[in-house]
Known about the structure:
Helix 1 (2-25) packs across helix 5 (103-116), helix 2 runs parallel beside helix 3 and helix 2 runs parallel beside helix 5. The protein is mostly helical. The model is unreliable at 1-8, 120-129 and 289-334 (pLDDT under 50). Helix content is 77%, strand content 1%. The longest helix has 88 residues, at 412-499. It has helices at residues 2-25, 42-56, 70-86, 95-99, 103-116, 121-126, 131-148, 202-212, 226-255, 259-286, 290-309, 313-331, 339-408, 412-499, 506-563, 567-612, 615-642; strands spanning 161-164, 170-173. It is built from 17 helices and two strands.
Amino acid sequence: VSSLYRFKMSGLDEVDNIILVTLRQIGCEFPDDLTSLSLFTSEIVVSAASRCLKTIRDDLDLPKKLPSNMSARFRVGTSLADACKDLGYRSDIGYQTFLYPNDADLRKMFMFLVEKLPRESSSAADEPMGSSALLNRAITAEMSLRLSQGWTPPYCKLARLNWSTGTPPQWHYEGTSGMHSFHADLLVVPTGLGDISQKVTKEKKQFYGSVHLKLVTRQPSYAYDVAASLLEHSASELTAAQEWETEWNQSGLASRLPPEEYKAKKRQRLKKKLADQLRVSIQQASGSGLGSDLAQLIGSFAGRESALGKGSRFTHAEKLQFAKDDLLTVDQAPRVETEEELKQKREDEVAALQARLEELTTQLEGMEMDIKKFTTNSARILEMTSSSRASIKDQEDAYRVKKRTMDMLPEADKHMAELQKLIDSSAQRLVTLSQQWEKHRAPLIVRYRELKSLNELRMNESSQRLEEIRLVREKMKELTREGRSKDELHKQLLGEYERMSKDVGRSSYTRRILEILSNIKKQRTDIDRILVDTRTLQKEINLLTGKLDRTFAVTDEQIFKNAKKDEACRQAYKHLAKLHESCGSLVTSVEETGNIMREARELEDQIETEKQKKLDDSFDRIAADLKQMKQENSALVAKIKGK
């Protein structure tokens, strides 16, 4: 019991140390000799609780010090208790928790408040943050840094550089003069040099470097497009690799071909498909004669237009104008047309042109209908022609058979005999061939079945291998994703570690945790040993009790049999009964003594718990507060009477 009590007290000390460290980190100021919650006064409790609640909820306006007036003190304690209840505190709490504190209630309350404190690493420690979250955090940190600095005029910046006084201080760019649009040029890179582990020969360097290919930094038109071009080129290669991997996992592995052969067959299929499409397009354009007909139609339309129109109205107007000009030149008597005449002439020309356009549109629609009818008729005629050719061929075959039959009719008996001989010889030949086939068929069937079973085994093995390969690829992808997430988590935790205060060492917490774990293990070992001893003693007690009962029963029976005849046996029987009763009462007394000792230990624990609550000190403080309240009430009554 004493060791368990010491372990419990050491664990509580560790909890108190963790709570004190956390409270100091949020800005609570405590004396250096304050090492336990049992040393907290009402003022310290109110200050620490108020700062915790303010950190959790910034909209709360709570006092950080206790006033001197008793009624104001009760109001402050009640407001703090209500704020804790609003946060979800379920245990008993009131103004007495802050004005008359005890260790257990304080420890429970501050553990609740510490768990509610907003920690930046609380969610990040549980889940790895993605790249977007890290980017948002970096943007937030940069904006906070910029907002914390004063404004610097542009002419005070050296080449757009500014010195930041953050942690650590460094130079950084400011302004937008160096920004430009994202523009990527097509980059050409050498092929066959993807393996960076192999050294590039001098011939390849000379061939690509000085003869045929520029460096990637010189290929873009402008120097600031190099980064964008490289990013675009890398993204395109990555996308192509991902698409190839997806296609290979879905179709390539099922084909059971090497990657090079699969790519070659795919290339051949694409070439064949393109060739077929081009062939079909050419046949559709030239097979039905539609192209020549359309050319004739356009030519006839142009001829008809020239024949019908013989020049547009603009041409006639131009000729008429030139004729009039010639006449005016000859007659030397020019006449100027009025505005109304010009307007009327334009309207007449517009009307004539619109009528001509409608006429041409109607003609074009009629020609399109004729083209559609011609195409439909030609297709129907081609279909009819093919069906007629097939029927003619069938009729010709039937005619040949009938003609040969008619030629053989004059000597029917002779031909029938010949046909019978042919039939008999054919039947005999079929029988011989069937016998020969059966001789060859049996070993072939056996071989076929063996090969089929081998093929099925290979197919099953191939399917299993493919499934294993697919599982391995999925496992590789999963491990890759997990590695990336852990790398991001490592970077994030490293940044958190750099931002953490180095006042409290991690080794002290680790040492304390290890000590607690060792004490728990030791206590668990002691408890297990005590339980084993208790079970052993209980078994021995049960065995002895059973043995005692059996012995008493046998002895009682034997003595009772002889008690009727012998007086000494009768006295022995009485003494035996009295001895059994005395032993039973003695065992009962021992059990009651054990229960009383257990109850005494429980009462001692309760007494110790009540001592930790410091009820005497609380009663003294309550009495002092009551006396002060009476004095304040008396002073208020005197002031009222004085008025």
